[in-house]
Amino acid sequence: MIRYDIIKQILPLIEDQFVVCNIGLPSQELYQLSDQPTNFYMLGTMGLASSIGLGLALVQKKKILAIDGDGSILTNLGTLSTIANNVANNFILLIIDNGSYGSTGDQLTYAGKKTSLKEIAVACGCENVLECQAEETAGVLKSALENDKMTIIVSKCESGNVKVPVVELDPVIIRHRFMTKLKNEN
Amino acid sequence: MSVTNKIVSDFKNNKIEFITSVPCKQLASVLTEIDISPEILHVPCNKEDEGIGLCAGAFMGGKRPAIIMQNTALGVVINSLVTLTQFYRMPLPMLISYRGEVGEPVACQVEMAVHTKALLEQLRIQTYHFHSEQDVSEFDAILKHCFMSKRPVAILTDANFWNGY
Q1: For B42, nearest residue in chain A (alpha carbons)
Q2: What stretches in chain A show pLDDT beneath 50?
């Protein structure tokens, strides 16, 4: 399974959830599969999906799911210690770990070599870190969504992409509709 | 009222309830005061671009954010400021220690000080330089201006403002 298959599989679980989605293909895939006002697409700024998600979770009550990648976590590695030390039980970080920089041509990341993001998260002090195979992701995410416990999921999948168009929405519209929906539901 | 107390009380009066920071010696007293203020959630970050992400999230979650950092961090946050804060049109007061100005004991700090205002100008970020203690009286209006305009705003505070440090 590649990332696109995972996103497709978890779609029924996340369509009514507030989602912060990583830059590049992950956002483009989610946008193509199911555009929702509850999706915050990152059009730039590699590495900050988990930080935006944590900031959101810390200041309000609704559950926040950040969908991130192994390359983006590696570029903002400090995020895992910030997450560990500022526990938000309405926060789930799903790291889709395909061991590569998918949006730039599948170059290997160090997570695709020796580095274990699960071990790093645990060493940072994160308390509820689950590693699973791509096929198990929906089940693991479902339990995480049902629990009120901050959870980090590292979903190991194969490298590879499908062709999807870029997100053409204006950033201010993405932000405004996300904020409005979140405000109304709080 | 000390400049530190004025800054923190202006944060509170403007309902700034989420602050992230990477510390600077010059800003230590502000950080201490924030840590004993129950109205403000202080989430220190490891690097300032991470802080820009945290602030974007806090703003979208309905709280007014601010970042406290050193001017050397401008080199870290440019991409995040441009592609996140500015592109999505979000307000962000940046309280910045202006290291490398007159009174600075560390030569290397001057290297970034000479670029600080030029970088902020290039980024089209409205910048206010606090040099004397009385300059702090503008802080409240600057915060209001920042949230009115939905843009980042920089407040540079130099060694003279902090009365040495």
Answers
A1: A86
A2: none
